[in-house]
Design the sequence.
């Protein structure tokens, strides 16, 4: 009915139809096809890279710091979160699992190394196109939501432009003596800026949430962050500014700094100007300009080191910035920006990738750059209607 190799290649490219994928899966029970499949996978996933095809700078950065380790997959370790798979596309999960199994099984037979395979959380399931999403969503205390666009003018926030800079100016409530909690959420593939009622400017990265009291009632100006934000805090010696995230608290009087605190990932604070106090449940450190602190999920230790300041501002310049990033972090970044589902297979704990890539590139272009480092492989598969899933692996 179909050409096996042609359909398998279309499957890897994410272009086969549901009927073609269903037909492909039906062949997995045939021993002769399993032999062919191993050869197909080996050819597709282990094509030698020419030296000229490598991106020298990125390759050297990773090669010097971290060895190239191959993950070996065994059948019982390949698990799928079925709750995330739509019921009318069951073949997508089955096909992905079987293909991943054979990739690993082939390597298992030819290499004598310890095996490791782990699936991490699927991040974002929205379609790749995010052009119609609002830039930000404002949630009020009663749960009502308001979409903020470039032309928004409401009693809670208004769109403003100063020179080449656009932002939303948050407005105080009528009764400034009472707290009024609001939350700003930034859509997939978007970034945006705010001016809070105290004059503090905040730039928010994709997939970020910031919760605050409009009136800043009390002795401190407290905000709660999930995601990434760059702060230019308005100075007020009598009323310190405090940023609380999952694993740490940052206290300042008036300064410029960046915090990256996505749920489940390490929290990184980088100071550009002034000084900040970073604290956990049992530790505290003072940062000076040019330093970064890192707090790992669920840990109390605060690790401080010199910052790569050019990388810190990369996301505000429409670039991906990776520093010692593992596959989980890379996958999360791609998911938040392109609105795709990302699954990581065969995570290697001591792998780290460092580099900056423009967000103006397509998903395929970014994945190609990652592959050309010589350490990361990927596969794009169809997943429900017009959506796609990306598999990242070593």
Sequence:
């Amino acid at each position: 009915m179909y050409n096996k190799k042609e359909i398998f290649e279309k499957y890897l490219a994410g272009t086969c139809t549901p009927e073609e994928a269903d037909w492909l899966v039906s062949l997995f029970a045939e021993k002769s096809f399993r032999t062919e499949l191993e050869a197909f996978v080996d050819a597709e996933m282990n094509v030698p890279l020419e030296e000229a095809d490598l991106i020298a700078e990125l390759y050297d950065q990773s090669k010097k710091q971290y060895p190239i380790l191959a993950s070996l997959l065994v059948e019982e370790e390949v698990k799928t979160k079925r709750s995330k798979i739509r019921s009318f596309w069951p073949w997508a999960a089955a096909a992905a699992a079987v293909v991943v199994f054979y990739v690993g099984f082939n390597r298992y037979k030819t290499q004598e190394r310890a095996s490791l395979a782990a699936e991490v959380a699927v991040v974002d399931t929205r379609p790749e196109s995010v052009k119609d999403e609002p830039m930000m969503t404002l949630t009020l205390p009663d749960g009502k939501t308001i979409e903020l666009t470039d032309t928004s003018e409401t009693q809670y926030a208004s769109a403003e432009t100063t020179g080449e800079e656009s932002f939303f100016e948050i407005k105080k409530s009528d009764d400034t003596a009472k707290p009024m909690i609001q939350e700003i959420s930034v859509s997939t593939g978007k970034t945006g800026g705010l001016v809070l009622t105290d004059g503090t400017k905040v730039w928010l990265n994709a997939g970020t949430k910031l919760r605050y009291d409009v009136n800043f009632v009390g002795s401190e100006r407290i905000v709660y962050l999930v995601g990434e934000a760059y702060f230019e805090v308005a100075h007020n010696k009598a009323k310190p500014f405090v940023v609380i995230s999952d694993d740490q608290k940052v206290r300042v009087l008036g300064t410029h700094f960046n915090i990256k605190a996505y749920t489940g990932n390490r929290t990184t604070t980088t100071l550009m100007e002034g000084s900040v106090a970073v604290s956990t449940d049992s530790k505290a450190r003072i940062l000076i300009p040019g330093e970064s602190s890192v707090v790992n999920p669920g840990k109390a230790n605060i690790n401080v080191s010199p910052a790569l300041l050019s990388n810190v501002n990369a996301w505000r310049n429409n670039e991906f910035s990776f520093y010692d990033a593992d596959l989980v972090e890379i996958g999360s970044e791609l998911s938040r920006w392109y609105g795709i589902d990302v699954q990581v297979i065969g995570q290697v704990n001591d792998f780290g990738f460092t580099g900056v890539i423009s967000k103006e590139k397509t998903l395929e272009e970014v994945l190609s750059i990652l592959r050309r480092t010589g350490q990361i492989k990927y596969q794009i598969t169809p997943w429900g209607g017009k959506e796609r899933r990306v598999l990242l692996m070593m």
About this structure: The chain has two domains: 4-127+318-393, 136-186+192-316. The helical segments are 4-13, 18-26, 31-45, 56-65, 90-110, 309-312, 327-338, 363-371. The domain at 4-127+318-393 is CATH 3.55.50.30 (Phage tail protein beta-alpha-beta fold). The radius of gyration is 23 Å.
